[in-house]
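Help needed: design a sequence for this.
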C-alpha cells in the first residue's frame, strides 16, 4: 500500500492540458513583442544613419547656422538613447524610467534650441514647465533609487 501511494500522484499535481494554453500563448506573444521591438530598433538604426548623413550635409555642404547643426546633434543623441532603451528592453524586458525622463529632457531642450522663443508667451511657459517637471521627476527618481551620489560624484545626470 505504501508503494502504491508513493507512485500514484495526487490529482492536483497532474498537468491539466488546458492550462498549458496560457503558457504557450504568453511565450508566443512575448516572441511577437520581441520581434516588433527588434524591428523598431532596426528602423531606428536606419533613421540614425540618415540623421548622421543629414548632419554631415548641414555642416559641410550647406553651411547652415550653428543652431541647426546643434539641433541635429541633439536629435542624434535622442535617437541613440531611444535605441539604447530598445536594446535594454530586449535584454531585460523592462523600460528604465530614468532613461525615458532623460530622453524627454533632451528632446525638449532640442525643441528649445530649434524653435527659440522670441516672445514671452504660453509656449515659453509650457517649455519651462515641462523642463522643470521632467527635471524634477528625474532628480526625485535618482534620489529615491540612491543614484544621486553617482550624479554628484560623476558630475552629470547621464553618468552611470
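Sure. Designed sequence:
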Amino acid at each position: 500500500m505504501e508503494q502504491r501511494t508513493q507512485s500514484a500522484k495526487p490529482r492536483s499535481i497532474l498537468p491539466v492540458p488546458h492550462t498549458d494554453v496560457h503558457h504557450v500563448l504568453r511565450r508566443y506573444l512575448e516572441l511577437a513583442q520581441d520581434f516588433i521591438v527588434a524591428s523598431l530598433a532596426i528602423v531606428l538604426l536606419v533613421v540614425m544613419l540618415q540623421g548622421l548623413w543629414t548632419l554631415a550635409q548641414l555642416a559641410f555642404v550647406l553651411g547652415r547656422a550653428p543652431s541647426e547643426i546643434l539641433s541635429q546633434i541633439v536629435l542624434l543623441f535622442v535617437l541613440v538613447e531611444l535605441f539604447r532603451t530598445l536594446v535594454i528592453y530586449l535584454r531585460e524586458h523592462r523600460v528604465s524610467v530614468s532613461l525615458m525622463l532623460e530622453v524627454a529632457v533632451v528632446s525638449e531642450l532640442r525643441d528649445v534650441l530649434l524653435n527659440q522663443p522670441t516672445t514671452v508667451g504660453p509656449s515659453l511657459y509650457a517649455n519651462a514647465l515641462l523642463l522643470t517637471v521632467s527635471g524634477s521627476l528625474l532628480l526625485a527618481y535618482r534620489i529615491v533609487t540612491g543614484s544621486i551620489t553617482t550624479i554628484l560624484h560623476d558630475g552629470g545626470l547621464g553618468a552611470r
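The two ends are 63 Å apart (CA to CA).
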